[in-house]
Amino acid sequence: MTDYKDTLNLPDTDFAMKANLPTKEPKMIEYWEKNSFTRKSC
Q1: Phi, psi of 10 (to 5 degrees)
Q2: Is residue 32 packed enough to be buried (19+ CB in 10 Å), middle (13-18) or exposed (0-12)?
Q3: Which value, in Å, is the radius of gyration of the alpha carbons in the chain?
Q4: Residue 32 contacts by C-beta under 8 Å, 6 or more apart in sequence?
Q5: What is the tens place of the pLDDT at every residue in 27-39?
Q6: What SS3 string covers the chain?
Q7: Is the pTM here over 0.70, yes or no?
Q8: pLDDT digits over 4-20, tens only?
Q9: Which residues have C-beta within 8 Å of that of residue 38, sequence separation ≥ 6?
């Protein structure tokens, strides 16, 4: 069977492809609140 991964043109990025939101989202919200992004957007 052919390994199709070798035939695809997949990007090679420096950042994680997974969202991993349960761990990243609280940190992002804390950063936004600290830098008051939520107040500036309204």
Answers
A1: -95, 145
A2: middle
A3: 18
A4: 38
A5: 988 988 888 765 6
A6: CCCHHHHCCCCCCCCCCCCCHHHHHHHHHHHHHHCCHHHHCC
A7: no
A8: 777 888 777 787 767 78
A9: 32
